[in-house]
Every structure is written in structure tokens, then in C-alpha cells.
Design a protein that fits this description.
This protein has about 425 residues and is α/β, with parallel strands linked by helices. The chain has three domains: about 150 residues, Rossmann fold, CATH 3.40.50; about 110 residues, Rossmann fold (3-Layer(aba) Sandwich); about 140 residues, Arc Repressor Mutant, subunit A (Orthogonal Bundle), CATH 1.10.10.350. It contains 17 helices and twelve strands.
Length: about 425
Amino acid sequence: MEKEVRVRIAPSPTGNLHVGTARAALFNWMYARKNNGKFILRIEDTDLERSEERYVRNIFDSLRSIGLEWDEGPYKQSERLDIYKNYAEKLVKSGQAYHFEGAIKFKTPSKTVKFNDIIKGELEFDTGLMDDFVIIKSNGTPSYNFAVVIDDMEMGITHVIRGEDHISNTPRQIAVYEALGAELPQFAHMSMILAPDRTKLSKRHGATAVSEFIEQGYLSEAFVNFLALLGWSPSDGEEIKSLQQITEDFELGRLSSSPAIFEFDKLNWMNGLYIRTLPVAEITQRAAKYLKGHELTEYSQEQLETMVDAVRGNLAKLDEITEAVSYFFGGDVVIDEEIRKTVLDTEESRNVLLKFAEFAQKIDYNNPEKIHEQLGEFRQKMKPLKPKQVMWPVRAALTGRTHGADMAVIIGLLGRGKVIRRLSI
């Protein structure tokens, strides 16, 4: 009978969940789902000084926010200290480890360690070049290279899918597996994620935690879609896919061994595409948290959806909607001095606004299609002025901007009172 696939993600709660760890979680989760296996969550919290419960909560919330629910766990290393100590003492008894100044050290054997990495291919190390290493620290907590082996062994992990920064740890871990007579898992080391300038991704490049991206209004569907493409490419070359479609197509062997570049521009493009294509009712619901600063009771739910639909074409992130719809609320509108000077404070513009104020009395504010027709009539009436010369002043007076949503939608939502008031500048 074929062995059940069991994979894990094991973040340390010393900070919010990083995008690199989230990508590792995603690839592990997809591999488990593709192979009818189990995805296990383990919290590596033996760094007692830096580990915090708020970061544990952030890890849970962040994984759930991008649709990665775990099958087992969360297991906490801090609750398993006796297990590590028992295994360490077993190695001491067999002569493969020894007590040293209040700690326990592992005797690193002098041999050649070879293993076949699913992504990197065959790798070889000479452990004779490595020192003995601590497996239990003097404070009773295990070292990373020891705890990870015991946990993976006890939890039946069959595939260790992690970042390539762990390759140098692997020969030590294999030595511990072999000392305990345990079966080795298969290893797959993913390439690193680099910033657009090809340096390590850090806060100076922008957000690095999953929760920051979600808070800024990146949709979970878009964010997961983008994460999946960091070092992996779909078999059909089609990049926009649901998590289910990506999972069905996912294979570890197609992961690139070259560094993945975190292109913020591509993420913004992809997120904007999702914002434009998801149902408007859903986008309006998700945008609600970013609209709380406005007096939403001015509009019905249907009108809010019309408003969101009108502005979402230019959004890269949902948090941009706060400013994008601001001119729909309140009586007056803030007009930038440069726009006032270049667009509104001319004799031609004042004449346009005067005539449009008269015309605005006849507009059918409840019928967007009719408003379109009526605006066409007004532009005809104002010839020989070009459409831009006519509509820019009107748009600037009503919204404080020279570009934005469809004018018929703006006028229909603002209504007669606001339109007339804003034209008298």
C-alpha cells in the first residue's frame, strides 16, 4: 500500500507571516491536496525570548486569509520539550551524542552524504568538514536541526518542501535521521524570493507580511494566484487561475531552481484584474471596510454598487477606493489649486459652467442612459468647443479632478442638488 503524503509548514512566531513562508505553505498545501495527503501546521517557538502569541495568531489568520486551512495541528515545539530530551538521551546512550557544559552535542560522523532533491537534483556533502553541533541547549530547548528532525519523524512527514536556505542544514539533519535509524523524507528546496532589484526581499521594498498585503486591499484570490507563480509556471502558460485550477496543475518537478522575483507591478496588475472581474456586489462588500470614513447612508446599496463599479477600473488595491469615491460624498468638493488655475479659472470654462448649470436643471438624474444622451446634446450645443474643452471644466467642478468615472454615472449619483451646488464655484 502506498504511503500517505504528509507535508508541513513550520513558521517561527517571531514576526508576522512572511510572504516567503506563505509561498512555502502554499506549495506544501497544494502538494498535499494534489496527492490526497495531509498538510500539517507546526509552530517552531523554542526561541522563547522572541516568540510571541500575537505572531502565532497572525500566522493562523494569515494562512486562513489566503485559503490555506491545515489538516493537523497546530503543534507547538514549546509543548514537546520532553520528547526532544528523551531522543537526545537515547543518542547519548548509544554513544552518538554527549553532554557538554550543560548542553548535549551530536557527534557528526565523517562521511559523504548524498540525497536527491526533487528541485535541485543530486546534492552531495562531506560531513567530515562539519563540527559536532548542539542538539539540546543549556536551557533545555532543542536546536533547530534537532527539533525539526524529531518533529518530522514523529509526525510522519514524507516530503520536506522548504526554501533553499535550508540546504546547508540538510546533511546534519540526515545524520540525525540515520543515527536514530529513521526513514528519510524526500527533500525539495525551493528557490529564494528576491526583490525587483535582485536583493533579499525586505521592508524597504514594501510590504513583506501576508497580513500587510491583505490589509492594503489585495484580494486573497489574486494574492494566492501571484504567489503560486513565484518559481512555478502553469503547464498551459495561462497565468490567471483559481487556487483549485493551480492545484490540479501543480507539480514539484516544475519548480524553477532560479530565484523568483517578487514583482510588485505584476501583483498590482493581477489584483486590479481581479477587482475588475469579480462580481460588483462582492467587490462592494469587500470594499466596505475602506468606505467606513464616508457617510454611506447618503446612498442605497444599489447606488453604492454603481459607484464601486464606476471607479474600480483604475484600482490596483482596494484601499485606493477610499480616495477614489471621496467626491461622491458631502456637499462641496476639494479642488486642487493647480486644477482650479489651469482648468476652471478661465473665461471659457466659466462660460461652460454657466451654461451647464442651466442645462443641469433639465437632466433626468434617474436614468444613466438618458444622461449620456443629454451630455451628447450639451456637447453639440457647445460647438465649436471640443468635447475636452466642455467636459473637463464640468468634471473638475463636480469632482475636483480631470479624469475618473463615467460622467453620466457621476451626475446620476450626485443628483440635482449636489450638481447645481458644485457648479456655482
